[in-house]
């Protein structure tokens, strides 16, 4: 088995001033070429976990290892060459063109004043091409649709040439067709480049279809981890989400998970 | 979006023309040939030589450095705070400096030497900034929202102090205090120009080193960290540079509005928001804009010199509004 690219050991984090821990005793690993999904109700600690993995937050106890080395030992620039994060941030940088925005992915590779090298520009163009944005390269981000914007975010992450990809709600605000395409893109990138990816989502159906492993988080802890078939049990899901859940196994096409209407206490 | 090199040429030529205009205008207008000879030191009559070399040249150079420093400071504050209203005086440096200057003018006169007002203005400005940062500093981080609010509060406090002192001041002190707060490039000699130039140059060079970090910060602080920026370190450095340049301009030239707000926005609208372009072009644009405004301030009601801040506002606001309407960026 290949070495994990991202590991957490007994990870705990308590926000300053908060009485209880947002993340408690999480142990998790992500392997190259694999997709690890994190699902769970609002407030389960999923995004806190992502911020711990990216070195934004420092754990109260436990540790995170990136490519075998503790995350806090990486400089921010060295980390950004290996680990890329796709979150909802680009909504603010509305007047950037797609090319300018994707070029920001080369920031950890170039000095402050130097222009991008031929190689940098090649990596940027390739990332734009790979996500099918070539025709939109000169458009501004605020002119893009939600699906195009999400592809621009993936292209920016790809321009960092990462070995690890962390995706926080990659399909938020996307319709089911665009959500599916986003996951196909992620799966493609992970397969082509041997990237280890960790994604957080509320879409359990897509998580079960695309996650090689899935972890269900609830109340800051990992309630259950494993293959989708091990995690997607009606009783487990019902306990985590506080409503009755129907789970239907459709074999090769994944699972259909639905809340059961009229069962709230 | 226009090319950055073209922008450099346009603004560079504008700056040279502005300097020529500044050297020719004044209470006694001089023809270009006389100015040219006086600057080069050959063949000009002694009076023209004296006017150009010891009055107009330091005034024009002071205008260049002050304008460049204000535009730099505004660019940096806007980048850090991601707030279009950010400008050099946001953190109360102008009110603090005005308070220091008015204290010096109404109570001390020149009792402690000719530079008393300048030194007190600098101290006042730095005290205001210091208080604002102390309030906004928490847990090893600078909180931008707290910073803005604290700046407004500290400004109001020192503004009230200025009004109190003015209400109690005698007639002549009142007049010179009010004139000080209006801002002028005419009261500094070569010494003020030298130290303002040194600070502006050093701050500009240092800020070039943060260009890509500032570009990343446009996406937000956490996103910038994901792209390799050491966010808190960059914020500390850039706030320091922006505050010190603003304080230096106020101590030398008083309060001159609109350059620090309008120039960076205009450059951004025309040449884009890459700080590798934005910072140098804002430096050039701010220098040119203030020198032109100061030349106009001396021409309108000769031999009276209008406060240059009046000209920057009266010309800057309509220009900016028309740019805003055309680009809607």
Salient structural properties:
heterodimer; A: 265 residues; alpha/beta; Rossmann fold; 6-stranded mixed β-sheet; 4-stranded antiparallel β-sheet; 9 helices; B: 329 residues; mainly alpha; ABC transporter involved in vitamin B12 uptake, BtuC; two-stranded antiparallel ribbon; 14 helices; globular
Percentage of residues in strands of chain A: 15-25%
State Rg of chain B. 20 Å
By oligomeric state, this entry counts as: heterodimer
CATH architecture grouping of chain B:
Orthogonal Bundle
**For the report, how would you describe the main beta sheet of chain B?**
2 strands, antiparallel
In one word, what is the shape of chain B?
globular
Name the strands of the widest sheet of chain B in spatial order.
1-2
- What is the total number of structural domains of chain A? 2
The named CATH superfamily of chain B: ABC transporter involved in vitamin B12 uptake, BtuC
Notes on the structure:
The complex is a heterodimer of chains A (265) and B (329). Chain A is α/β, with parallel strands linked by helices and 265 residues long. Chain A folds into two domains: 1-76 and 163-178 and 192-232, Rossmann fold (3-Layer(aba) Sandwich), CATH 3.40.50; 83-161, no CATH class. Helices cover 31% and strands 25% of the residues of chain A. In chain A, the strands form three sheets. Chain A has a six-stranded mixed sheet, sandwiched between helices. In chain A, strands 2-1-4-5 form a four-stranded antiparallel sheet, covered by helices on one side. In chain A, β7, α6 (176-193) and β8 form a beta-alpha-beta unit. In chain A, α4 (118-130) runs antiparallel to α5 (146-159) and α5 packs parallel to α6 (176-193). By secondary structure, chain B is mostly helical. Chain B has a single domain, classed as ABC transporter involved in vitamin B12 uptake, BtuC. Helix content of chain B is 77%, strand content 1%. Chain B has a two-stranded antiparallel ribbon. In chain B, α3 (46-81) runs antiparallel to α11 (231-253), α3 (46-81) crosses α13 and α12 (259-271) packs across α13 (275-299). The A-B interface holds A 16, 51, 54-56, 75-81, 84-85, 87, 89-90, 92-93, 95-96, 100, 104-105, 107-108, 110-113, 115, 160 and B 82, 139, 208-213, 215-216, 218-220, 222-223, 225-230, 272-274, 276, 329.
């Amino acid at each position: 088995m290949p070495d994990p690219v991202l590991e957490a050991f007994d990870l705990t984090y308590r926000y300053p001033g908060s009485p209880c821990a947002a993340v408690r005793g999480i142990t998790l690993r992500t392997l190259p070429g694999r997709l690890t999904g994190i699902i769970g109700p609002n407030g389960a600690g999923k995004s806190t976990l992502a911020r711990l993995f990216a070195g934004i937050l420092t754990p109260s106890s436990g540790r995170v290892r990136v490519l075998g080395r503790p995350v806090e030992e990486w400089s921010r620039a060295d980390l950004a060459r290996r680990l890329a994060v796709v979150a909802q941030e680009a909504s603010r940088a509305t007047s950037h063109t797609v090319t300018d925005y994707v070029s920001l992915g080369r920031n950890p590779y170039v000095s402050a004043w130097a222009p991008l090298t031929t190689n940098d520009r090649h990596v940027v163009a390739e990332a734009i091409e790979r996500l099918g944005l070539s025709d939109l390269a000169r458009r501004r981000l605020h002119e893009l649709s939600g699906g195009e914007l999400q592809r621009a975010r993936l292209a920016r992450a790809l321009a960092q040439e990462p070995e690890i990809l962390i995706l926080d709600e990659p399909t938020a605000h996307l319709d089911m067709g665009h959500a599916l395409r986003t996951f196909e893109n992620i799966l493609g990138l992970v397969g082509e480049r041997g990237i280890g990816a960790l994604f957080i989502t509320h879409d359990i159906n897509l998580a079960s279809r695309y996650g090689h492993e899935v972890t269900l988080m609830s109340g800051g802890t990992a309630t259950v981890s494993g293959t989708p078939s091990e995690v997607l049990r009606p009783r487990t899901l019902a306990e985590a989400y506080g409503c009755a859940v129907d789970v239907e196994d459709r074999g090769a096409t994944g699972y259909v998970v639905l809340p059961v209407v009229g069962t709230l206490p | 979006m226009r090319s950055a090199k073209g922008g450099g040429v346009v603004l560079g030529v504008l700056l040279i023309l502005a300097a020529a205009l500044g050297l020719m205008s004044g209470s006694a207008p001089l023809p270009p040939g006389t100015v040219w000879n006086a600057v080069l030191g050959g063949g000009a009559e002694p009076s023209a030589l004296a006017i150009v070399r010891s009055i107009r040249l330091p005034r024009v150079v002071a205008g260049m450095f002050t304008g460049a420093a204000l535009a730099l400071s505004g660019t940096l504050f806007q980048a850090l705070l991601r707030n279009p209203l950010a400008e050099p005086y946001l953190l109360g440096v102008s009110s603090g400096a005005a308070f220091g200057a008015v204290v010096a003018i109404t109570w001390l006169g020149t009792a402690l030497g000719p530079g008393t007002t300048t030194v007190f203005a600098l101290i006042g400005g730095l005290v205001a900034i210091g208080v604002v940062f102390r309030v906004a500093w928490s847990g090893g981080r600078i909180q931008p929202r707290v910073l803005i609010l604290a700046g407004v509060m500290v400004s109001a406090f020192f503004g009230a102090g200025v009004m109190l002192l003015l209400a109690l001041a005698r007639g002549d002190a009142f007049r010179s205090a009010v004139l000080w707060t209006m801002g002028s490039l005419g009261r500094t000699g070569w010494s003020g120009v030298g130290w303002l130039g040194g600070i502006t140059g050093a701050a500009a060079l240092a800020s070039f080193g943060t260009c890509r970090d500032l570009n990343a910060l446009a996406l937000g602080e956490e996103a910038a960290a994901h792209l390799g920026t050491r966010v808190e370190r960059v914020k500390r450095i850039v706030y320091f540079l922006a505050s010190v340049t603003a304080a230096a301009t106020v101590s030398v030239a008083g309060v001159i509005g609109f350059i620090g707000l309008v120039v960076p926005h205009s450059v951004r609208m025309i040449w884009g928001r890459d700080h590798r372009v934005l910072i140098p072009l804002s430096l050039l644009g701010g220098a040119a804009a203030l020198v032109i405004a100061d030349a106009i301030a001396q021409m309108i009601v000769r031999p009276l010199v209008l406060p240059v801040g009046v000209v920057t506002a009266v010309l800057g606001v309509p220009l900016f509004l028309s740019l805003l309407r055309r680009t809607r960026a």
